[in-house]
Each structure stands twice: as C-alpha cells, then as structure tokens.
C-alpha cells in the first residue's frame, strides 16, 4: 500500500510518457556517499527529476524522443523525508517500494489515455513483477540523462 502525495490524479495526464522512478534503486546506482544521508541524496535526485519533468523532449533509453514526461518518484524508508520540488509526483511507500512501483505502474496503465509508462529500475525481481505493457530502463540511462540536463 502506498500513500500518494501526487499533485494531480494520475489519469489527468494524457500526453507524453509517465516515468516511474524506483528512487532507492536510482540513488543506489551511483556510489557517491548516499548511504550517509539517504534523504539528502534523494532530495538531490528529486531536484534533477524536476528538470526532466520541465525539459520537454529528451532522448529515451533507446534514443527515441520522450516528450512531455510526467515524473513519478517512489520513496521508501528514510528517503521519505526528502524535500519534494514542484513538477515531481511522489508516492510514499508504506511498506516496500517495489510493491508501490508495481501498483503505480498498473494504475497508470489502466487510467491514462497514452498508456505509455516507463519504469526506471535495475531490480530484476521488480522488473518481473511489472505489468507486461510497462517499458523498463535501468538507472544508468536516467542518471546520464539527468547529468546532461544539469549542464
């Protein structure tokens, strides 16, 4: 079960892709000392994700254009206390983040007209639990894209 702290109903966004980020996995993909301050590392990632949400068109995982990304970040554990910038929809996982990611991806696929959902995670177990219609990319693509957007 997850508590949503989303800005709008997930079905309100009809254009573009929904990018669902397994934040614990994305933060943990870069050994930059995140383990000393999980909330701080998550706050920094969320600020970068806000730039993605505002970017318009970016290169997707396969080089295809992604337009109008609506970014959803799933937070769990100590990362739940992170500061959330405008432009990023946050789901606070009450138990495990993986279950919250699976539930959110399912809701988005059922309720959006685009049915375009991209989940960012390297977690193989989570990937196996996702709805078949969800696209998946690893955090390497996301982190490289966010680095490029920060320049």
Q: What key attributes describe this structure?
A:
Rossmann fold, single chain, 5 helices, 151 residues, alpha/beta, globular, 8 strands, six-stranded mixed β-sheet, two-stranded antiparallel ribbon
User: What coarse outline follows from CA principal-axis ratios?
Assistant: globular
The SSE order reads: EEHHEEEEHEHEH
Counting DSSP E segments of at least 2 residues, the number of strands comes to: 8
The CATH class, by name, is Alpha Beta
CATH topology title: Rossmann fold
Distance between the termini: 37 Å
Our Rg estimate from Cα atoms comes to: 14 Å
Q: What class would the helix/strand composition place it in? A: alpha/beta
Low-confidence stretches: 1-14
Structure description:
The radius of gyration is 14 Å and the shape is globular. Helices cover 36% and strands 23% of the residues. Helix 4 links the parallel strand 7 (117-120) and strand 8 (135-137). The N and C termini lie far apart (37 Å). By secondary structure, the chain is α/β, with parallel strands linked by helices. The protein contains five helices and eight strands. It has one domain (2-149): Rossmann fold, CATH 3.40.50. The strands form two sheets. Strands 1-6-5-2-7-8 form a six-stranded mixed β-sheet. Strands 3-4 form a two-stranded antiparallel sheet.
């Amino acid at each position: 079960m997850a508590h949503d702290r989303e800005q709008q109903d997930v079905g309100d966004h009809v254009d573009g892709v929904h990018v669902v980020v397994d934040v614990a996995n994305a933060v943990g993909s870069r050994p930059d000392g995140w383990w000393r301050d999980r909330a701080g590392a998550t706050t920094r990632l969320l600020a970068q994700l806000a730039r993605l949400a505002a970017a318009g068109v970016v290169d997707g995982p396969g080089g295809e254009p992604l337009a109008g990304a609506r970014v959803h970040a799933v937070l769990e554990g100590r990362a739940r206390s992170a500061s959330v910038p405008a432009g990023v929809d946050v789901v606070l996982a009450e138990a495990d983040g993986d279950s919250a990611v699976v539930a959110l991806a399912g809701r988005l696929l059922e309720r959006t007209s685009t049915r375009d959902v991209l989940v960012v995670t390297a977690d193989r177990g989570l990937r196996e639990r996702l709805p078949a219609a969800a696209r998946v990319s690893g955090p390497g693509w996301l982190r490289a894209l966010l680095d490029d957007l920060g320049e």
